[in-house]
Structure formats: C-alpha cells, structure tokens
Design brief:
This protein is of the alpha+beta class. It contains 3 helices and 7 strands, in the order βββααββαββ. Strands 3-4-5-7-6 form a 5-stranded antiparallel sheet, covered by helices on one side. The chain has a two-stranded antiparallel ribbon with strand order 1-2. The two termini are 17 Å apart.
Length: 169
C-alpha cells in the first residue's frame, strides 16, 4: 500500500481503485519526470491480472511527457495523481499556468522538443480542465488493454521489473 504526502493510502488491484497522489509546492520545485515514471510503474505493476508491458510503456511515457511539459512550460507540477480502476489508468498532472498545451511542429535540427504533446494525445484520451484559483489539470486516460497489446497472444510477457537495489530508486 502506498500513501501520499498527506498520509492518504491507495489500494491495489482493479476491483477497488489504486491511487498514488503527490501534491507539491508551487514553483519550479516538486515532482520530476523520473519520479512520475516510478509512481506509474508502482501503480501498474500492482494490477492483477498483470498489465501488458506495452501498456505499461505507454503509460510511463505519457506521465513523463506531462510532467516534463509542466516543468518546462508551466513552472512545475503542483499535483500528480495516478489512478487505476475500471479497466484504465488515469494520470493527472496539475500546474499553476492557465496556458493550454498545444502541439508544436518539431524542428529537430533547430532545437529539441515538440514531440511530447503529440505523443500524449495519440496514446491517451486527454482532457484539460481549468482549476479554481488558477492553473490547470491535464488528465490522460489509457486502457489497461490496447490494440497493440500482446496480452492475448502466445508468448505474452507481463510487465515486471527487478526491485531496485537497497537505497536506490
């Protein structure tokens, strides 16, 4: 069982709801993409039956891109939440900016970036909501089974990983 910074516990499995949440202070500090990826791994590796590795990879990529965008373009993450239930995973990222995300045309020879929002909108059903008092929340929902999933094919390999070495994450 995992709890957020306020001590709220999250359950495991599809029957209930598996929720991992982290609230951070306003400004550039707070959650980073690697921490968001770890929370998505933790939430999805607890699901039974196991989630296909391709679904896990998509969810981790979506979380990483949403947090990267909040850090790079919106002053940082103010709240991050991963919920698993009803056959889907929902990743919510809040920030203090009112500016809505938009797709840029990548220019790889001129500068880095421009791919993230397009990837997110192709992999997930996305909703952007304004927050009372300013800022926004971006919610991305992905099915726990997917069209490119190998789950129902011979040779299915469920998502798994070795636990990190003592003291490393």
């Amino acid at each position: 069982m995992v709890s957020d910074e306020d001590g709220h516990a999250g359950g495991h499995g599809i029957e209930g709801e598996n929720t991992h949440e982290r609230r951070t202070g306003r400004g550039g500090g707070g959650l980073r993409p690697g921490e968001a990826r770890e929370q998505v791994y933790d939430a999805l590796l607890a699901v039974r039956p196991p989630v296909d590795v391709l679904v896990l990879a998509d969810a981790v990529l979506v979380a990483s891109e949403l947090v990267s965008n909040a850090v790079r373009h919106a002053g940082g993450v103010t709240r991050f939440r991963v919920s698993v239930g009803d056959g889907e995973v929902e990743i919510s990222v809040s920030d203090g900016s009112d500016a809505r995300p938009y797709e840029r045309r990548p220019q790889p020879l001129v500068r880095e970036g421009g791919y993230g929002w397009g990837l997110v909108t192709k992999l997930a059903r996305v909703e952007v909501a304004e927050r009372a008092g300013g800022g926004k929340t971006v919610r991305a929902r992905l099915s726990l089974t997917s069209a490119h999933s190998a789950y129902e094919h011979p040779g299915f390999i469920p998502a798994q990983r070795k636990p990190p070495a003592e003291g490393k994450r």
